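Calponin-homology (CH) domain-containing protein, Cudoniella acicularis. Tokens?
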Amino acid sequence: MSYTREEDALLKWVNTFPIDYSVETVADLTDGRILNRILEEFNPQYAVRDLDKNTATTKWLSNKQSLESIYKALNRYVGECCPEVDVTNVATPDFSSIAEKDDPKETAKFLILFLLAAFNGPNPSKYNEMTERLDLEAKDTIQVMSRGLQAMLLKPESANANDSGTLSTGNGDEILELEEKLARTNKELADMKKRSADLQTRNDHLNIKNDDLKEQLHKVTLEKEALEKSHGGDHTGVINDLKKRIRDDENLIERQEQQLDDDRVLKANQERELRDLRPAAQALLSLQDEYQVLKAQKEELSKKANTADNFKKQIESLSDVKETNTRLREQIDTLESNQKDYDEKTLENQKLRASETLSRQKYHTALEANNVMTSELNLFRQQNRELTDQINVLKHQINKDEEIINSLQEDKHINNSFPSPGSPPSPSMRAAPLNLQEELERSNEHTNYPLKIQRLETELALLKSNTAGTTNTNLRLDLDESDRAKKRLEENLQELEEKYIIGQNQLDALISKLANEKLVSVLNLGDYTLLTNEFNRDEAIATTRKAYQETKSELVLTKAKLAEAETELTKVTRELLAARADLSAIDQEEMVALENLKATNESITTSLQSDLLSLQAKLKNSTIDYEQQRTHLVKVLLEKDELRQDLEALRVGGNVKAAEGNDPSQSAIQSSKEQQIEKQEKVIKDLQRRIKIAEEGGADAN
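Tokens:
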């Protein structure tokens, strides 16, 4: 950055002080540290101690505050240690331009104040010696500036207070006149300062040139005298030339002295005018202060006038100042009341924000709890799916076992239907095979559910009477569990009976519709239904079972898909509800949106809890079904043993009868029975294997 001669000389003059580092540009002075060090060199008592404690938000604002603090301390130093210096004649620097833009002109104004304080303080010789260390150009510039500032040293006489008169603050015309007078005075003062500075500079330059010419004239005179003494009349031409040059120089000196006298007269006149203008400048400063006061009063009066105009429009009877003041007081009271209301509303708003923050925290807590419940629900669903898969495997195994048992029971009834030799067939043997309900009623091995329920109730009564080992709470829980098991068993029994009736009807319908070449007509004899030997019973039952299993598999698959679809529908419904709540919360207020989100979250939580309770109930029912199936497997195992014993007895009886008679038809019957027994043995082995697999599957489920 290029600087003027004066600015460059001032920067070099700053470097003559014992500072921390050399100053190269104006930017090195913007933080105020170097200037504060110079002020400390003047007098340590006036240095700013807390220069680093400015808490401004930006760097330039902090620098501005530091420069203002240094300026105040420098004014205090000049006022106390330099009584002859009038700092009011020096323009106040623009600290914003210095701090923000590194303005060299404003920085030079600030350094001029330090220059005045240095050369007019208690020890000016010290700083004169420091100035002598500068180069010739910088030293001359500093000296010229110092002499030019001497005109500002004398303080003006105190202005007569009566000259300015008493200013009225209530008249707008006087304010305008004062503003106009102030503008003119400022302009005249600026012009005079400019002219004075120019003349002073010209005077200094002329003085310097005059001194140089005098010195040159003195040298020429000495040379002339020396030449005259040494050469006599031999150098008359040279002497004449020198005399001519001397006369020209003397004429030039006379002209310059005349110009110098004119400049001195002009300077004296300007100094006189300047002294005459100093009281006016002092008065101008006071007028500026009064102008600022009047301007503020004018703005206040304008506001009051506008307020008064508004009141005049609203109230036609307003006529005097007293009523206006009354209205203004009422307005002040209203503003104070509004301020109180605003403070109350602010406090309420803070409370609402705190409540909102607490509500948000509760909402996030509830959301986290909801996520935990969702994860637990997913875990329960996974466990339920695993249990369902195990139960389906057990059901499938049980169905196969029931098919095998039914096949064995049918084979047993077929064997019993053949009459033994020596005894006529009984009516019961000629009758049709019993259905499942009759077998359940007549079979001693089948589980008697009412008896089992009675036994459970007896055990429950015994547990109630025996209070030594358990508490009432545990007994009540066992009772509830027994009731649930009882209810589940009754439901399963009713479902089995309904399935049996439906299956029996479907079986009869399918058998009646079969078109096989081995199929014969059904003989209806009263309450009995008798089938001939040629009836293809195995094929009919196999076809019926196949159709039943396919239908049952399709039904199970459909139910599973339906349950999955219902679960997915519930999940999508909850997501849609949450999305709608989030969408509606965008255009609503925070509290209303928070309440809506809270209600939506509660409904979603309720739905998840309902699903969880439903899954828990399904899990309990699955556990009961598993126990029931396990009991049924044990019962099937017992029936298997009994069936094996019956087969052994039948085999022994067949051997005895074969020994008693050698009838070929009887031998054929016996051979057929042996084949059936072998077949039943294979079926029993397969049943044992499947029951073992079912038991292992039950252990895994536990």
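The beta strands are 523-525, 528-530.
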